[in-house]
Write a structure and sequence with these properties.
Helix content is about 35%, strand content about 15%. With about 240 residues, it is an alpha/beta fold. One of its GO terms (molecular function) is identical protein binding.
Length: about 240
């Protein structure tokens, strides 16, 4: 979907071979917030819907739509972008519902579903989440939380968009954080460790969604440049050898 080089092709082939399930439609960028914005545009194009839910404590970037899905927007950015919503997260140590896990039966996901049904307008394209929250204090969710959100998204017909910019590429002991939960998202966003700190990010969508990449004009001038592609390929090769 943009200019290609031999090294970029090798990197994309390598990345597609190790991503979960049938996540294989890849578009590259330089910053995480670019990839988040593009993932949201892809979700909008595929679903023909425009609303998104994220969580208090999440961090998704500093451009308009991404920061609107980030708690800091409450006091740094003025009004949020239209159609963006925040929900309480599954933070058991400081439960926003003052319940106790596991007796609560992961009540926070039921509350999320109810909030989507009541606060949304019937045009929810996706839920955007970090599998481990970083900005708000390395919040690790309880067992069953992320799989339950996956089931809820399936039930409501909305996309599950997982932001692995912070957690990807073996930072949690597995190549992808979602592998800990046996969950395959509809869209996954990667960065930071993807090229060992070199400016290289991407979003990856399921194969059946790839037609939207042309529809949204997903490419950028510098995303997937030869240096970034070489750094990404080398990083994946080293990780594959060592984990």
């Amino acid at each position: 979907h943009d200019y290609t080089t031999e090294i970029k092709t090798l990197f994309l082939e390598k990345l597609a071979s190790v991503t979960p399930g049938n996540l294989s439609g890849i578009q590259m960028y330089c910053a995480g917030t670019e990839a988040v914005e593009a993932a949201m545009r892809a979700a909008r194009a595929y679903t023909n819907k425009h609303e998104f839910f994220s969580f208090y404590g999440d961090f998704h970037g500093k451009t308009l739509s991404a920061v609107s899905l980030t708690e800091t927007a409450n006091y740094t950015s003025g009004p949020r972008a239209t159609g963006t919503h925040l929900a309480p997260n599954g933070h058991c140590y400081r439960c926003p519902f003052e319940k106790t896990y596991p007796e609560c039966n992961i009540f926070c996901t039921d509350a999320l579903e109810k909030q989507i049904q009541m606060e949304g307008t019937g045009n929810v394209a996706g839920v955007v989440l970090e599998p481990i929250q970083g900005w708000k204090g390395s919040v690790v969710y309880p067992d069953g939380y992320i799989p339950k959100i996956r089931k809820m998204c399936n039930k409501l017909g909305i996309l599950m968009i997982v932001d692995e910019v912070l957690t990807c590429c073996a930072r949690t002991g597995k190549l992808w954080c979602v592998d800990h939960y046996d969950v395959i998202p509809d869209i996954m966003i990667l960065g930071k460790g993807l090229a060992n700190g070199f400016p290289c990010t991407a979003f990856i969508i399921k194969e059946e969604y790839t037609e939207v990449l042309d529809k949204i004009s997903a490419s950028t001038s510098y995303g997937g440049n030869p240096m970034a592609s070489a750094a990404g390929l080398s990083s994946l090769e080293v990780i594959e050898e060592e984990i």
